Amino acid sequence: MVRFLKRGPSLDKGREEMCEISGRQAQSLILEDTGGNEGNKIFRSHGANMGCPPDGQQIGWALDRSSSNAPKSRLGKGGRDGMPSEMELMKERFVKLLLGEDMSGGGKGVSSALALSNAITNLAASVFGEQRRLEPMSAERKARWRKEIDWLLSVTDHIVEFVPSQQTSKDGSHMEIMVTQQRKDLLMNVPALRKLDAMLIGYLENFKDQNEFWYVSRDADESENGNAKRRDDKWWLPTVKVPPSGLSEVSRRWLLFQKDSVNQVLKAAMAINAQVLMEMEVPEVYIESLPKNGRSSLGDAIYKSITVEVFDPEEFLASIDLSTEHKVVDLKNRIEASIVIWMRKMHNKDGKSSWGSAVSLEKREQFEERAETILHLIKQRFPGIPQSALDISKIQYNRDVGQSILESYSRVLESLAFTVMSQIEDVLYADSVARDPSHIDSNRKHSLLSDSDTAGMVKKLDPKEELEKLKEAPTSMTLSDFMGWHFDPDAEAEKKDSGNLSNMEKLKKPPNIVAKKFSYIEKLENLGGLRSPTARH
């Protein structure tokens, strides 16, 4: 329950009364841009759900529940102990979607696609926004996420297309008819995203039994915090503490295993999100804002680096200043704008358009491929960076509800996966500093690139390929499970009896544990509640 003081109707008497608002009411977390200060956050909701007013200010008659003239919320009836029921909460949520977040009903709301995208984004912000430690989600937050994301995803059950099917009549003859089926992109990606969702929450559950690292609040005193104060830009997060000698070898290997598992989920979510964004149409508003040629978009220095005879994307990025997040996003915006310009020029090569150019078609295709390579390299080297101007424009002006749901759902899972992976790297960094204090000034940069990627050309993330890789690793493994997975009890007993330290080399995975392999789709179908709807006549 959120409590705040508000002025009563009798201001002359100076009486103040307490106003209670149910914490179960859905609220939208809105980031107000006031002079670039990202710390100014307010809660906004429509209708009866209002946020807490600043000190000394009065919200108005809409919050004066004691007045008989005040409008009564529809959520106040039918609930237990005055609390809104689940059905009423769901009604309110879908009313907001139908009205396009315009509760005045004047038709000035956003499109249904953008309203659903905002609803999923705001739900994830309110549920996962406080996930600042490697620990399981509370049962209340987990139940709320499951319930409300199911409400929003239920829209995809009714986005269908016609597909051919065979119908057998009573006399045994066969006839081809058209039946409705969930749209192909939703049929494939919604179950996959649900699977990634369940895996991420399962990875957080794995940390319930660990006791080798803990967190110190940023407000802790000097004696408790020690020299573990955060030295990066995320000063508001709690600081990780490990034993003076660092983590044990088993815990360190388990954390690396968890990091690899979360990293694979991150790559799969990124691949789905990139694919959906690529399929969205480029808005005319964005195209009209572009310059007439790629050189103007990139700048002379970057343009010359891309159009040289011998091009190396690694050397190109090494020559660019990418020390801050703003510079990375700026380069990404320039690269994407140049790709759109070159693509349009290639499509308009036969027409007399103002986009025309004297550069040959072959050269332009080569420049476009190089720019695509740089873009893929940036996305994998700097995961978690803000969205580009092109992505924001596509999301804002997209009218396809199915694509909007896939994009927002994959984006919030990508954000959660990156957050969990960053928290695991914070623990590994604290362990590294405990074992060697000289590492305290080292930079912590998150990257999806492996050694094989940096040695050669970066490969574009493919959703099917990344999802297939998830079949090889266990979906959930606690620290105790990991210890049993890597250590042979017989070898440990033999070592204890003989006293020979060389028997440590016999540590291995038990050979008798052989899991039956299923295809990815079979695994999804075996999970209750994740099956897509069957064909409807």
UniProtKB/TrEMBL annotation:
Say if the entry is tagged with keyword Transcription.
Answer: no
Q: Which residues form a coiled coil?
A: none
* Gene3D superfamilies in alphabetical order: PRONE domain, subdomain 1, PRONE domain, subdomain 2
Task: Give the keywords, sorted.
Answer: Guanine-nucleotide releasing factor
Q: Does the keyword Magnesium apply?
A: no
Domain of life, per lineage:
Eukaryota
PRONE domain sequence ranges? 77-441
Output the Pfam families linked to this UniProt entry: PRONE
A GO molecular-function term, please?
Answer: guanyl-nucleotide exchange factor activity
What PANTHER family does the entry give?
ROP GUANINE NUCLEOTIDE EXCHANGE FACTOR 1 (PTHR33101), ROP GUANINE NUCLEOTIDE EXCHANGE FACTOR 12 (PTHR33101:SF10)
Q: What is this protein called?
A: Rho guanine nucleotide exchange factor 8-like
Q: Which organism is it from?
A: Phoenix dactylifera
